[in-house]
Design a protein that fits this description.
Elements (H helix, E strand, L loop, with lengths): L1 E6 L9 E6 L8 H10 L1 H14 L7 E5 L7 E6 L10 H18 L4 E4 L11 H13 L3 H4 L4 E6 L2 H18 L1
Parallel strand pairs: 1-6, 2-4, 2-5, 5-6
Antiparallel strand pairs: 3-4
Helix pairs in contact: 3-4, 4-6
The structure holds adenosine-5-diphosphoribose.
Adenosine-5-diphosphoribose binds next to strand 2 and helix 1.
């Protein structure tokens, strides 16, 4: 499993699965959620409504999978990140769950390449450096059976700030490994 840190618009990067930083309603929103629905088209929202009617939306930390519509992907995996509330309300565990549950869903759907945005670090206010540490913690602690089934994990940073944070986090994570 290779990890790439990229800067750009996640809706423009080809992958088997694109992860959406959704909200619990699954009815779309701003940020990356807005971009995915806008560019992916109404098929994504229609699929989200089917899930919503079946299970009433998506809990924080959970993930659901839909078509990717017109996006350069087979699937969109919608996950709901935690809203940052100071760090003592279980936010770290919930953010970890977003990445783990999205990766589990990816493997269940024979996904080989998956792209993540920097979940919760926009409207939900999760400190970017803390969020990056969570991402690398999850990726280093992934069970082998998941790592073996994934070829590429793209960490897509929209802004320069996150890009620099992820590059720095990757270095410290690599240094720890040796
Ligand atoms: N491609 C990649 N990353 C993007 C894009 C894009 N097109 N647009 C925004 N981002 C980045 C933001 O810069 C931020 O770093 O995605 C990260 C997550 O930001 P948000 O999209 O605001 O998501 P989040 O902080 O998880 O808040 C979720 O926002 O859009 C609503 O419906 C969504 O209520 C939910 C909330």
């Amino acid at each position: 499993m290779k990890i790439y840190i990229l800067q750009g618009d996640i809706t423009e990067i080809k992958a088997d699965a694109i992860v959406n930083a959704a909200n619990s309603s699954l009815l779309g929103g701003g940020g990356v959620d807005g971009a995915i629905h806008r560019k992916g088209g109404k098929a994504i929202l229609e699929a989200c409504v089917v899930i919503r009617n079946r299970q009433g939306g998506c809990e924080t930390g959970e993930a659901v999978v839909t078509t990717a519509g017109h996006l350069p992907a087979k699937f969109v995996i919608h996950t709901v990140g935690p809203v940052w509330n100071g760090g003592n309300k279980g936010e770290e565990r919930l953010l970890e769950n977003c990445y783990v549950n999205s990766l589990k869903l990816a493997v269940e759907n024979q996904v080989k390449t998956i792209s993540f945005p920097n979940i919760s670090t926009g409207i939900y206010g999760y400190p970017k450096d803390k969020a990056a540490a969570v991402v690398f913690k999850v990726l280093t602690q992934l069970p082998e059976e998941i790592k073996e089934q994934l070829d590429v994990v793209n960490l897509v940073c929209f802004d320069q700030e996150n890009l620099l944070i992820y590059k720095a986090a990757e270095c410290s994570f690599l240094n720890k490994k040796h």
